[in-house]
């Protein structure tokens, strides 16, 4: 329009003139149009003709070149390119899928490298770079790049026997074709533990004949002869802890040892802070079917048929051992006990941290801890058993599915598959998060943990309340199992325990 307006003004100015003019005009459209125009004036009239129209290419910004990817990781990469000679901005765009909206980043003309982050592992991206000059853009240079797959995590070995082990890991987020497992024995390695026995002695005299006997995979009995002229009143055993022993003692049992491990024991006399020369002995603990049992069922298969306290390794040998109470009698044994109420000597109206870590004494009342429950129930499918006693009456409830989720999900409960004689009071709590007096992740009408004085998987609020107030038969605050005794009777004895669902008790013979 501006061109024709100019032409009209020009014609008005030249009405009295008479001449012929021919020239080229470039009209700036998306592409250049070349017009060859001629016109003439004769006083009161003129003629205009366009004699040629010629499309011409638009001289836009130069293309970048040489697209290169470097420093490629699971979630990031760097892209670089060769800048054109002319000074232009650049726009880098990337998309993980052809149908997805690409993400674009403007880059200053002085830069030719861009770091891309927050990418998905093991994913293919199309990256394009264009030059930008004003409103004009060049064609794009493009290439494909794939981020590295992320590694699997949380590798651990459980169910370790003398010939096999079960490996568990958290899979990679990226899609992978296969996993490669590399393993082998540590040549020349030896589990060597040095134990120092320091005891009272005479002038330079030393204990004699230090021996290890009754060596089992988890224990050994040390015996020795004292100096003939003993002076003092103690022996000091130094291993992973220090134990003071009366000077009249001539033997000591080492327990909680590692199977298939070599131990070196030294014994010295001590007097006034000075030690005599040391005598020593060595022994190697024996083998077990499960050297590092993950629960009480493996302890039973290792040959421990008596109920009692024992160390287990839910996270494998490299994980922290957990001291638990094993019930090796009830229903074939192999049960890891995680709760017991029997006399009211232990306070169960506690906060979140106590319930997470556990509290009480394994020989009396205790809660093993929600973190331990999560670790135990995440190894393999578990069965829950609840034993209840009142005087001469005893009943039980058994659930074929039992899982406690992690702390991020507030130790949520998954329980189903009831059988037994106590009636079903736990299925009501299925799917509920754990709550305590100081933390209620999903309060309903009332804060159940405060109202019913315990830590539990409350709903609205309970059909079972085995961590409530001991010997309290009012306000539904006692040790309640509604399906057996109703809500106004506090059960005197409760035990909660778990065992792998696939476990088959060994035959006694």
UniProtKB/TrEMBL annotation:
Alphabetical GO biological process terms: neuron projection development; regulation of cell adhesion
Subcellular locations according to the entry: Secreted, Extracellular space, Extracellular matrix
Domain Fibronectin type-III: 63-151, 206-288
InterPro entries documented for this protein: ECM_Regulatory_Proteins, Fibrinogen-like_C, Fibrinogen_a/b/g_C_1, Fibrinogen_a/b/g_C_dom, Fibrinogen_CS, FN3_dom, FN3_sf, Ig-like_fold
Domain Fibrinogen C-terminal: 287-502
Annotated SMART domains: FBG (SM00186), FN3 (SM00060)
An annotated GO cellular component: extracellular space
Keywords from the UniProt entry: Disulfide bond, EGF-like domain, Extracellular matrix, Repeat, Secreted, Signal
Annotated PANTHER family: TENASCIN
Database matches in NCBIfam families: GGGWT_bact (NF040941)
UniProt-recorded name of the protein: Tenascin XB
